[in-house]
């Protein structure tokens, strides 16, 4: 396989999460008045939908659009506040992996279920503004995971010639579904985030890796 494009998730895949998503989510739903006894069930849903667009998750949980938007804004502020406090680190080896992939001739896109502003706050904190060829977040005309839009948008914007030359990697079942639905040849799960080997196998992953740092070797074996 001649890898033209590698689409990588951020939190849990290339960026260590360490509970930040759940912490920011708890802050958000508390701020919009969700009672404490309802929060554990909502957190279960958050874990089940890791990787998906956060506004979609809030809509599913809260129903009312105004409340969902308010919660999404609270989540963004809370998460970016944690990032500003220095609670944002790369997954070991992730930066070198991205550089290795690009040096080998592949283009790299970093994608997320966060809002674009949160994504850029993370990139700024890590000094990764120019690390990848492209960064993408859900927005108008681009649905988040598990839809294929983020991958297909990267394919179009980076002028990839063949979807069979695309690899997708992430730490959730939603990442796997996104990869498979887009037609990517590789949809790899990584075990540094919320997903388990069983989760990935059930979702139809082509590969399950201990870490994103194993991806260049895996892709090299397919060449």
How would you characterize this protein structure?
The chain has 223 residues and is of the alpha/beta class. The protein has two domains: 5-17 and 89-222, Rossmann fold (3-Layer(aba) Sandwich), CATH 3.40.50; 20-84, DNA polymerase, domain 1. It has ten helices and six strands. It has helices spanning 20-31, 39-48, 54-62, 65-84, 94-103, 116-126, 149-157, 173-182, 197-203, 215-222; strands at 5-9, 107-111, 134-136, 166-170, 186-190, 207-209. A six-stranded parallel sheet has the order 3-2-1-4-5-6. Strand 2, helix 6 (116-126) and strand 3 (134-136) form a beta-alpha-beta unit. Helix 3 (54-62) packs across helix 4. The chain is globular. The mean pLDDT is 95.
Highlighted features:
223 residues, alpha/beta, six-stranded parallel beta sheet, globular, Rossmann fold, 2 domains
Biggest sheet, spatial arrangement of strands: 3-2-1-4-5-6
**Topology, number of strands:** 6
Helix content: 40-55%
Q: How many strands, what sense, and barrel or not for the largest sheet?
A: 6 strands, parallel
Terminal residue distance: 4 Å
| Rg over alpha carbons | 17 Å
Low-confidence stretches: none
Corresponding CATH architecture of the largest domain: 3-Layer(aba) Sandwich
What is the domain tally? Answer: 2
* Annotated CATH topology of the largest domain: Rossmann fold
Bin the strand percentage: 5-15%
